[in-house]
């Protein structure tokens, strides 16, 4: 049997007072270098390893292919190295089932997958960080999580060491960064040589994962998820999409956010499928080429990705010789499903994809960092109205604050338990009945739900009317010359708030865009009170790594209180002022 670690490593004597005993005599605990803690994830993965050498992870960026046996072998080794590296105090906290946080600094990659599972296997709480974070900004997340160590990928090894040096010299002397790369690629164990403990259990409902909020409407907060999210939520998604060992997903999303972890990584891994990681940055040209190869069965993206993919198709691919253009369409139609989350897919864009896919729609869903899925469009649902994000997910309790419309209030079996080390924010997040207050507004039509936007930035109050910014954005995006748009409410003495649009024009647009022209072309599509009264044409709209437009910050930047010469304003009974 291949060795996984040195014999000098100390293994835990878990504090499992609930473990039944039949005798008062001490009994050796079932722990060791090749033994996983008792948790469904490891039992399932070992089962897949026993079924053959199918590829579990295909890391296209770093050219690593790993079977389930290889993956689990490397997980054991990293776990064992952690046992030999951590201080006695930290080990004692782990063995006492206390909350111990581990930072993970890595892109979507094989190294990430190994480290994620290794932290789980040692009983720690996984705190993934964005590999794109500036080192100074990363200190906020490390300090907020009070982590004991950082696991760093090849790409982030230098940053990891620099961050660790800054942390250890200021607020945590024992903090260090451990490089993942030298610890992987061990001789793979046979599935029969990897065991699951009979008496060392991970608490299924104990703390397992922290996902930081995107920070689009305030400072990022660390939402703590139970270990049941890692297993149960993944299984729920896998069942919804009927995932199996024949599936292969193109994973191109950040793995420090809920969608990249809970939708595109864990459900596929725990279904015995292949996760194909791409972390070199989103390039619509390259993605289309991967699609054309027809080896993928699932793709999960965000609206910005689908927008750029469609733009490349319309400007380049559909103008190729017919047989070549058809090969790209065939690649798109080869997928079992295309998925979209993080933010609403604009209706005009959704319609274009539906046409390209031969009548099949992109399956949207709605969730947040705090509770993942609440609404989803099930595969094969032909009754779902256009613009809807689907029905309530099975097992989830959802209500709207004002009956058929209002703030989305949620109780989910896999929702977060708290914002770490922030009791005030945690208490403020729930209403008096224990529902999580999402801050998002929706309306219900029959069994289906429609997202109207974020209460703080997407619901405008202008001239006595409540207006959904998403409704206005949808109609503006339907104009041929518009590439992207952001609609916000700008404070105004006359209207209360003005409907302000920041627009990115398509590259081939001739001339500039006036507010007069925009209002004229929207007149037949929008009620007069919804028509924009402010316009600014911009080269781009800044976004988060998950493709969300940072509206709260851009509102002030693009439409400052003291005005800006590039902002066009419509005045009642006057011509627009430029």
TrEMBL record:
<dbReference type="Pfam" id="PF00501">
    <property type="entry name" value="AMP-binding"/>
</dbReference>
<dbReference type="Pfam" id="PF13193">
    <property type="entry name" value="AMP-binding_C"/>
</dbReference>
<feature type="region of interest" description="Disordered">
    <location>
        <begin position="1"/>
        <end position="29"/>
    </location>
</feature>
<protein>
    <recommendedName>
        <fullName>AMP-dependent synthetase/ligase domain-containing protein</fullName>
    </recommendedName>
</protein>
<dbReference type="InterPro" id="IPR000873">
    <property type="entry name" value="AMP-dep_synth/lig_dom"/>
</dbReference>
<dbReference type="InterPro" id="IPR042099">
    <property type="entry name" value="ANL_N_sf"/>
</dbReference>
<comment type="similarity">
    <text>Belongs to the ATP-dependent AMP-binding enzyme family.</text>
</comment>
<dbReference type="GO" id="GO:0031956">
    <property type="term" value="F:medium-chain fatty acid-CoA ligase activity"/>
</dbReference>
<feature type="domain" description="AMP-dependent synthetase/ligase">
    <location>
        <begin position="102"/>
        <end position="419"/>
    </location>
</feature>
<dbReference type="InterPro" id="IPR025110">
    <property type="entry name" value="AMP-bd_C"/>
</dbReference>
<dbReference type="GO" id="GO:0006631">
    <property type="term" value="P:fatty acid metabolic process"/>
</dbReference>
<feature type="domain" description="AMP-binding enzyme C-terminal">
    <location>
        <begin position="472"/>
        <end position="548"/>
    </location>
</feature>
<dbReference type="InterPro" id="IPR045851">
    <property type="entry name" value="AMP-bd_C_sf"/>
</dbReference>
<dbReference type="InterPro" id="IPR020845">
    <property type="entry name" value="AMP-binding_CS"/>
</dbReference>
């Amino acid at each position: 049997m291949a060795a996984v670690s040195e014999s000098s490593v100390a293994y835990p004597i878990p504090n499992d007072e609930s473990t039944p005993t039949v005798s008062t005599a001490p009994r050796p605990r079932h722990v060791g270098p090749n033994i996983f803690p008792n948790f469904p994830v490891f039992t399932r993965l070992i089962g897949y390893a026993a079924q053959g050498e199918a590829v579990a992870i295909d890391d296209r960026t770093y050219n690593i292919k790993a079977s389930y046996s290889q993956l689990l072998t490397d997980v054991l080794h990293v776990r064992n190295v952690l046992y030999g590296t951590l201080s006695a105090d930290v080990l004692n906290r782990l063995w006492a089932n206390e909350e111990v946080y581990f930072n993970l600094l890595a892109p979507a990659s094989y190294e990430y997958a190994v480290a994620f599972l290794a932290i789980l296997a040692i009983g720690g709480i996984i705190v993934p960080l964005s590999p794109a974070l500036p080192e100074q900004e990363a200190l906020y997340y490390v300090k907020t999580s009070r982590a004991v160590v950082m696991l760093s990928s090849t790409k982030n090894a230098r940053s990891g060491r620099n961050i660790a040096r800054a942390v250890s010299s200021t607020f945590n002397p024992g903090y260090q960064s451990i490089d993942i790369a030298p610890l992987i690629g061990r001789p793979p164990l046979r599935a029969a040589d990897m065991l699951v403990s009979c008496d060392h259990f991970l608490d299924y409902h104990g703390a397992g994962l922290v996902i930081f909020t995107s920070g689009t409407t305030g400072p990022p907060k660390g939402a703590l998820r139970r270990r049941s999210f890692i297993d149960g939520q993944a299984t729920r998604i896998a069942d919804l999409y009927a995932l199996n060992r024949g599936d292969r997903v193109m994973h191109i999303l950040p793995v420090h956010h809920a969608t990249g972890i809970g939708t595109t990584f864990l459900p596929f891994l725990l279904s015995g499928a292949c996760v194909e990681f791409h972390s070199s940055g989103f390039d619509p040209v390259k993605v289309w080429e991967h699609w054309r190869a027809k080896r993928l069965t699932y793709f999960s993206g965000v609206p910005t990705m689908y927008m750029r993919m469609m733009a490349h198709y319309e400007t380049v691919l559909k103008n190729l010789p017919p047989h070549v253009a058809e090969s790209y369409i065939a690649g798109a139609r080869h997928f079992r499903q295309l998925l979209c989350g993080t933010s609403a897919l604009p209706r005009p864009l959704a319609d274009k994809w539906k046409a390209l896919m031969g009548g099949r729609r992109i399956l949207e869903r709605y969730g947040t960092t705090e509770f993942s899925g609440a609404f989803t469009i099930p595969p094969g649902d032909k009754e779902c109205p256009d613009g809807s994000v689907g029905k309530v997910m099975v097992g989830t309790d959802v209500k709207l604050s004002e009956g058929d419309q209002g703030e989305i209030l949620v109780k989910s079996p896999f929702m977060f338990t708290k914002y770490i080390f922030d009791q005030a924010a945690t208490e403020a997040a729930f209403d008096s009945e224990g529902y999580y207050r999402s801050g998002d507004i929706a309306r219900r039509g029959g069994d289906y739900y429609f997202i109207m936007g974020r209460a703080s930035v997407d619901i405008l109050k202008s001239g006595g009317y409540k207006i959904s910014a998403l409704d206005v954005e949808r109609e503006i995006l339907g104009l041929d010359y518009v590439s992207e748009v952001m609609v916000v409410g700008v404070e105004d003495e006359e209207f209360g708030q003005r409907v302000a649009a920041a627009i990115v024009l398509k590259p081939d647009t001739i001339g500039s865009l006036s507010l007069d022209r925009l209002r004229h072309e929207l007149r037949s599509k929008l009620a007069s009170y919804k028509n924009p009264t402010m316009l600014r044409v911009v080269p781009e709209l800044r976004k988060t790594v998950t493709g969300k437009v940072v509206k709260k910050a851009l509102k002030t930047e693009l439409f400052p209180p003291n005005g800006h010469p590039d902002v066009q304003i419509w005045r009642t009974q006057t011509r627009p002022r430029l």
